[in-house]
Write a structure and sequence with these properties.
Layout lengths: L1 H13 L1 H39 L3 E6 L19 H8 L6 E10 L3 E2 L4 E2 L3 E4 L3 H5 L2 E5 L4 H6 L3 E5 H7 L12 E4 L2 E10 L6 E4 H7 L8 E6 L5 H19 L9 E5 H44 L1 H9 L4 H37 L13 H27 L3 H6 L2
Parallel strand pairs: 5-10, 7-9
Antiparallel strand pairs: 1-11, 1-12, 2-5, 2-11, 3-4, 3-8, 6-9, 8-9
């Protein structure tokens, strides 16, 4: 083993320039592979975080216009969703529906004795916290008791707390009063977020504030145990059928209600991300291939220059396997040496990218992990073996007598 290692080092040392130039191509190929995979990972992480914060198993339904007459009702009739539709869908006995809710957007000023904001507020169900991805910093979110009793309570964002209660900490505003639509609301919670400043009140309280109108802008249906595209479509059709019975339109009239199926969108996006990941690996591997071809070429040159040496070794009893192993191991050594230089450069580049894109929405944590390093190591070993195999097979075809005559 030590003799083999010494021979490999001697071969590399005798051809420093040629080996270095070829090795740079290998290092560059590995560097590009890691950077491309890291960037792809960052995009996928961002996508998964976005979906995780909003929920992937969600249907959102809006009212539309009928596109054909049905049972005496005219074509072009406007369908307005009602609060009773929430209960109808929730009580439809579909085992794959876990929660049905809605949001009412209210305009108006929220004020305190210190200041006011005019961003309005939303009437929501407790599930809104989970779907929005917000995190409670103090107090609590809207709960079922708030809905049942139509309590006048409100949840504020940290940004709104800074405006309405200057100098106060989050926990200090819990229990304080704010005024909206001529009513006094008690602050029961404060949530933190980077961009959302919406204030929340119970959905039933919002209904009361809009003169008990039962119109809702949209209905949100959360699904469970949906695994395939067929499952997602089945729940969508079930919801459409329930609403068709409520509003008297044809069940397959797609214009009567508009349904955004986030689960089907999630499946499509997952497929797209899989294609993107595979494409980046292919591009990276082809970039690495150019370096591997270079390694193979210098091994061919090395075999040609050492024809006489190979002949002498064969003549004094060296087995073909010994010659094969030496040449293949030389190729692996060159590939691995410069490949690991490329790995270090690639890891350094992804760390810089992670710092540069910190806090950005479209790329999240493009750093590579140990599994990628293991995969790249396997790629390096296989590539080195392939690069040295063909020159080694050529060396085995050299006849000792002819090799000894070579000068």
């Amino acid at each position: 083993m030590f003799d083999l290692a010494r021979e490999i080092w001697q071969t590399i040392s005798n051809n420093k320039l040629r080996t270095s130039l070829t090795g740079v191509a290998v290092a560059w190929g590995i560097f590009m592979l890691i950077v491309l995979v890291g960037m792809t990972k960052g995009v996928i992480n961002s996508f998964e975080e976005e979906v995780g914060s909003q929920g992937s198993n969600v249907l959102q339904v809006w009212g539309g216009q009928t596109t054909e007459p049905w049972h005496g009702y005219r074509q072009g009739r406007q369908i307005n969703l009602k609060t009773r539709d929430i209960d109808a869908v929730g009580n439809s006995h579909n085992a794959k529906i876990s929660d049905v809710s809605s949001v009412i957007y209210c305009t108006g000023v929220i004020s305190t004795s210190e200041d006011y904001i005019s961003s309005g507020f939303s009437g929501v169900y407790p599930s809104q916290l989970r779907r929005s991805g917000n995190k409670m910093e103090s107090g609590r979110f809207i709960n079922q008791s708030d809905l049942a009793e139509r309590r006048k309570v409100m949840v504020l964002s940290e940004k709104n707390v800074e405006l309405l209660f200057p100098g106060k900490k989050n926990q200090e505003v819990i229990g304080r009063k704010v005024e909206a639509l001529g009513l006094a609301f008690t602050v029961v919670g404060v949530y933190g977020t980077q961009w959302n400043r919406t204030s929340y009140i119970p959905f039933t309280t919002a209904v009361m504030c809009q003169a008990n109108s039962d119109d809702v802008g949209s209905i949100v249906v959360e699904m469970r145990d949906v695994e395939t595209e067929a499952d997602g479509k089945a729940v969508e059709e079930s919801v459409r059928t329930v609403l068709a019975a409520q509003h008297h339109f044809k069940a397959d009239d797609s214009g009567a209600v508009w349904i955004s199926n986030r689960f089907l969108q999630f499946i499509t996006m997952q497929q797209g991300m899989g294609i993107l990941n595979a494409t980046m690996w292919i591009i990276g591997l082809f970039t690495l291939l150019s370096g591997i071809v270079g390694v193979s070429n210098i091994m061919f040159v090395s075999v040609r220059e050492r024809t006489h040496e190979i002949g002498v070794r064969r003549a004094i009893g060296a087995k073909p396997r010994n010659v094969l192993v030496q040449i293949v191991m030389e190729s692996v050594a060159i590939t691995a040496l410069f490949g690991y230089i490329g790995i270090l450069m690639g890891i350094g580049a992804t760390e810089l990218l992670a710092a540069a894109f910190d806090g950005q929405d479209f790329i999240s944590n493009p750093r590579v992990d140990i599994s990628l390093a293991v995969n790249v190591t396997v790629v390096l070993v296989v590539a080195g073996c392939v690069a040295g195999l063909f020159p080694a097979l050529k060396a085995l075809k050299i006849k000792p007598v002819e090799a000894l005559r070579d000068e």
